[in-house]
Give the backbone structure.
Amino acid sequence: MATINEKELVEKLRDKYMKKPPEGMTPSLIKSMSDSDLLDMDYFLHEDVFPGDDDGEEGFYIF
């Protein structure tokens, strides 16, 4: 399995989000984002996909 380096990942993400920007964003805003900001945005758009991180889950709790 081929691994992808961070620079390649950023290029793929930038291309993906420029073609279909998240709600409230524009392709030009995506283009001007730093690599770090782009990676952070992608993480937070998909944070609910990562299993095992249920801290702070909303709902009804009985203690």
Observations:
- DSSP finds three helices and no strands in the chain.
